[in-house]
TrEMBL record:
GO terms for biological process: glucan catabolic process. InterPro entries: Cellulose_Degrad_GH3, GH, Glyco_hydro_3_AS, Glyco_hydro_3_C, Glyco_hydro_3_C_sf, Glyco_hydro_3_N, Glyco_hydro_3_N_sf. Residues 1-36 are annotated as: Disordered. The keyword Transcription does not apply. It catalyses: Hydrolysis of terminal, non-reducing beta-D-glucosyl residues with release of beta-D-glucose. It comes from Actinomadura darangshiensis. This is beta-glucosidase. Belongs to the glycosyl hydrolase 3 family. It comes from the Bacteria. PROSITE patterns: GLYCOSYL_HYDROL_F3.
């Protein structure tokens, strides 16, 4: 059973010894002899209306099985004064197999919105918004109305088990236009400020919960070991020690004390992606045109425990995280010879033996988007394999009815034990009780007025300033003096979509004026009344004291951003031309890199007087100007190693022959001006 008799409802476990070691992993584990699936057809997260319609048409009839025991008003599970474990036990005993399987199923809102009665007929446990899956009225009220309408359908079921609504709040409540959008995690790692990360995620939790969702698919506690990975910016850094330091974000999401999770200031968190997603081998991915994302982590158990598993030990033992999302990636142990990778979603060794039994995780596992479809075999084999491996809830966005039907058949045929179903459902129900959903199923909108508030944006602005890493500062070029005549060039100087990056309003993010906030150019103009902006540096430069060239990337997410999949670490030709033009014409030249990962600037560096890594700052670009003009000092340190060439990847602190352009932890400091 997932629920322990001694469990204190709503309590977060206290810190215990969290030092991960290789002994967490057994020497000779049992392992299903699974191979990579080469049938994977890469799917997008949105725009599948035809599939959704087909799904609706294929719905099974409403659940007809009769319960063994009806739920009266005196049912123990409805008594909020009873311990969570007792409530779970009571409710589980009243549920039919169909109702249990429904709790294990999560559908995408786009698949059920046209026929919301599916929530009732399938007894769905959860609904999610994928990236860009938003209500027609993308406002706090529009979100809350939508989530509450779905919740009403869940409460129309026989046992009135409330719905858990999940959303990717990975750098703020980023699907909502108007939310506070924070820098991505790679920048937060550069702050070296765990308290600021905690504060960021508390704000994210408040803004998310005020619009309905009670569950965030965040934070990513991956350890990025190769900058060619399109998700590198979702990681706090390449050193597991730094990632562990920043796991204070889990407290920001879930709270520190008993009962915090049930308040309007906290949401259920998700540590992801368990485990090794940032440590996959380049070229190993078989997902569409991806090169490294969703690939294979080829490693021995000692390295895996030290680097990839370490953050999850802390997430469970110190922070008591409520849910964990297994990775799309595979593991291929070198101890038994390379060439037999196992998908994480199929690994009983890692999901059950290691995570649940040895580490002691008592929350629930949620699969990633259609992740089980990458397991070899037909759909029934995929479902059976993953459930038996230890997966508890299944993100089956457009195939929820098929999943329910398939799992029911597997249980009835004896291929999945009822005890495994009961364990999964107990874990899910535990989270719902701890969230207080049975007492308060509908959205508490009382904090909606704080969404995007000046107070919240001030924290984001502080995060931007503290994340800026000064990598070069010749002749004390920085900080700048107020009202110097400034010439600004580069597309990323005045594009809030570019500076927010992926996972902003839509899955991939997009260029342009997509969210409210301040661009870097806006921030510069707040400090000088003599600013000339020329995107392509075609305007005359004469009379300028300082040139600022803002280079970098345009938005991407996941494997779409993998190097080799239409992306490179090199600067664009336009960026190089802007550096050449401005730095040769103006006496003092500052270059800012707005990107989700270090770019190759080896040949450009000598042309600059100052070079700053600005990362993906989010909605508060004025925070960049705060350090440029000395309102705050530069204190950021690199959270990843900066390569001198793309061919150097992967390069990480501790490697032999470690000769990067800038080492991990590098960052110059400045003294602030006194205005």
């Amino acid at each position: 059973m997932a629920v322990r008799a001694s469990h204190d409802p709503g309590a977060r476990p206290r810190a215990r010894s969290a030092g991960p070691c290789a002994s967490v992993l057994g020497k000779r584990p049992r392992r299903d002899d699974l191979r990579h699936s080469h049938r994977r057809v890469l799917t997008t997260r949105i725009g599948r209306s035809l599939v959704a319609l087909a799904t609706i048409a294929a719905l099974p009839p409403a659940i007809a099985a009769q319960p063994a025991q009806a739920a009266g008003p005196q049912a123990a599970y409805l008594n909020a004064r009873l311990p969570v474990a007792q409530r779970v036990h009571d409710l589980l005993g009243r549920m039919t197999l169909e109702e249990k399987v429904g709790q294990m199923t999560q559908a995408e809102r786009g698949a059920i919105d046209a026929d919301r009665d599916q929530i009732t007929s399938l007894a769905l446990g959860s609904v999610l918004s994928g990236g860009g899956s938003v209500p027609a009225d993308n406002t706090p009220a529009g979100w809350a109305d939508m989530v509450d309408a779905y919740q009403a359908k869940a409460l129309a079921t026989r046992l009135k088990i409330p719905l858990l609504y999940g959303v990717d709040s990975v750098h703020g409540h980023n699907n909502l236009v108007g939310a506070t959008v924070f820098p991505h995690n790679i920048a937060m790692g550069a702050t070296r400020d765990p308290g600021l990360v905690r504060k960021e995620e508390q704000i994210t939790a408040i803004e998310t919960k005020a619009t309905g969702p009670q569950w965030a698919f965040a934070p990513c506690v991956c350890v990025t070991r190769d900058l060619r990975w399109g998700r590198a910016y979702e990681s706090f850094g390449e050193d597991p020690g730094l990632v562990i330091k920043m796991e204070t974000g889990l407290e920001g999401f879930e709270g520190r004390r008993k009962g915090d999770l049930a308040t309007n200031r906290h949401v259920l968190a998700t540590a992801k992606h368990y485990a090794g997603d940032g440590d996959t081998k380049f070229g190993s991915s078989t997902s569409g045109t991806y090169t490294i994302d969703q690939g294979v982590t080829v490693t021995d158990r000692k390295h895996f425990a030290k680097v990839d598993l370490a953050p999850y030990v802390v997430a469970v033992k110190k922070y008591g995280v409520g849910s964990i999302m297994p990775s799309f990636s595979s593991i291929d142990w070198t101890e038994d010879g390379v060439g037999n990778p196992v998908k994480m979603s199929a690994s009983k060794e890692l999901l059950t033996d290691v995570l649940k039994q040895k580490i002691g995780f008592d929350g629930f596992l949620i699969s990633d988007w259609e992740a089980i479809h990458q397991i070899p075999g037909d759909y029934a084999t995929q479902v059976r394999t993953s459930v038996n491996a230890g997966m508890d809830m299944f993100m089956e966005p457009y195939s929820a009815p098929q999943f329910v039907e398939t799992l029911l058949a597997e249980v009835k045929a004896g291929r999945v034990k009822t005890s495994r179903i009961d364990d999964a459902v107990s874990r899910i129900l535990k989270a719902k009780f701890e969230l207080g959903l049975f007492e308060h199923p509908y959205t508490d909108r009382s904090l909606a007025g704080t969404i995007g508030s000046p107070e919240h944006r001030a924290v984001a602005r502080e995060a931007v300033a503290k994340s800026q890493v000064l990598l070069k500062n010749s002749r004390h070029a920085l900080p700048l003096r107020k009202n110097e005549r400034i010439y600004v060039a580069g597309i990323n100087a005045d594009d809030i979509g570019n500076q927010a990056g992926g996972w902003t309003v839509t899955w991939q993010g997009s260029s342009g004026d997509i969210i409210p906030g301040t661009t870097i150019l806006d921030g510069i103009k707040q400090n000088s009344s003599h600013v000339t902006y020329s995107e392509d540096a075609s305007a005359p430069t004469s009379g300028s004291d300082v040139g600022i060239v803002v280079v970098g990337e345009t938005p991407y997410a996941e494997g779409v951003g993998d190097v080799g999949n239409g992306h490179t670490l090199n600067l664009s030709d336009a960026d190089k031309a802007n550096i050449d033009k401005v730095c040769s014409a103006i006496r003092t030249c500052v270059v800012l890199d707005v990107a989700g990962r270090p770019q190759i600037v080896t040949d450009q560096l000598s042309k600059t007087d100052a070079f700053v890594m600005s990362w993906l700052p989010g909605s508060e670009g004025a925070g960049v100007a705060d350090v440029l003009f000395g309102k705050r000092q530069f204190t950021g340190k690199l959270s990843v190693t900066w390569p001198s060439s793309e061919a150097q990847e992967p390069i990480n602190i501790g490697d032999r022959n470690y000769h990067p352009l800038f080492p991990y932890g590098y960052g110059l400091r400045t003294r602030p001006h006194h205005h």
